[in-house]
Amino acid sequence: MVDDSRITGFYKLSREERVKKLKEVTGLSDEELEPLVDPGMVDMGVLDHMIENVVGSMTLPLGIATNFLINGKDYLIPMAIEEPSVVAAASNAARMARDHGGFTATDTGPNMIAQIQTINVLDPESAKLKIMEVKEDLLAFANEQDPILVRFGGGAKDLRVRIFDSKVGVMLVTEIIVDTRDAMGANAVNTMAEALAPRIERITGGRVILRILSNLAEFRLVRSRATFDKELLGGEEVVNDIIAAWAFAEADPYRCATHNKGIMNGIDAVVIATGNDFRAIESGAHSYAAMNGYSSLTKYEKSQEGHLVGSIEIPMAVGLVGGATKVHPAARASVKILGVKTATELGHVIASVGLAQNLAALRALASEGIQKGHMALHARNVAATAGARGDLVDIIAEKLVKEKNVKVERAKELLEEIQR
Ligand code: MEV
User: Fold this and answer.
1) Which of 243, 255, 365 best tests ligand 1's pocket when mutated (most atoms within 8 Å of CB)?
2) For residue 355, what are the CA distances in angstroms to 181, 226, 345, 407?
């Protein structure tokens, strides 16, 4: 946990200076940050046991987003992503929400769904009722599979049965809703579904085939909202145009795909940094967005004072225990930087980053377009690579852009000229 996530000029520092600053504000030790700061320090033995046929590792740049205030708490946010501008854009959007209280996030609790598919059921409606009659027994039996989860307050909480037609005839699908606490929960719910299957077969007289979680985690939602300052956004017209840009996404799936992709830029970057399953999050996000015709995961409106109020609602099956989050040393370091205590708190952070990312993209698209910002950031990186520090980064970057010659060699020449 950090006292203040506003670190002005963080981008102007050298990488070494940023690491020093990060240590200073988070209070984390060299040892704790090492696997993140120096990927070469990650033990290949650990990676070798994570998947099969390991020969090496693939590193991504990891940046820290600043300025995030979520439910009254400041966060520095590790983001692992190959795309330029994403970290800067998230930090910038978070800054625009700070004076209005930052982000307010809530959730439905960490409830996952597991599905048990049954075919060849002769009388599906009465089979459904028979299952519901022994619902409590089935839930109790599911919970016997994971006493530790139950001890932590989690476990199977509810059960529903859905009947629908399919290409191979009528299907009866029994779904258990399991509170998986701080785990992503795939192992827990799959174990429960497999254990329940023979009982479902006995009750229904049918044949069970699949027993697996659903990534459409509609009972594991997080929501976040924030008010973005109209002056910082660029005035009333920009606010109106951002709302029009969002309405475009709501009306048109071609635009909506890109709009939601921008949200996932931020979300995936934090999910990856914390060692969580980004395919599960992607699948959950897009299937949730498609529940009533593919639509935006965010919404926008104007406050009475003319500020922009944005919100997001998204399934968020992330965990803090188990999986790569616990095993991968760099993911452990990211979780420490975040200072989150529960998977749900991590979900609040991730959803807020998604909203910030979307707002930043819409603001750029609805005003000067995204290329200008990309070029300015690229020029800053080039200036820093050439050795510029502090205010010289911006001075040289500006000259490079004006000259339309964003090259390290030219940045070095300019630096020498100024220093002379
Ligand atoms: C690029 O990675 C993401 C954007 O295309 C998102 C959007 O168009 O909203 C800028």
Assistant:
1) 365
2) 24, 8, 16, 33
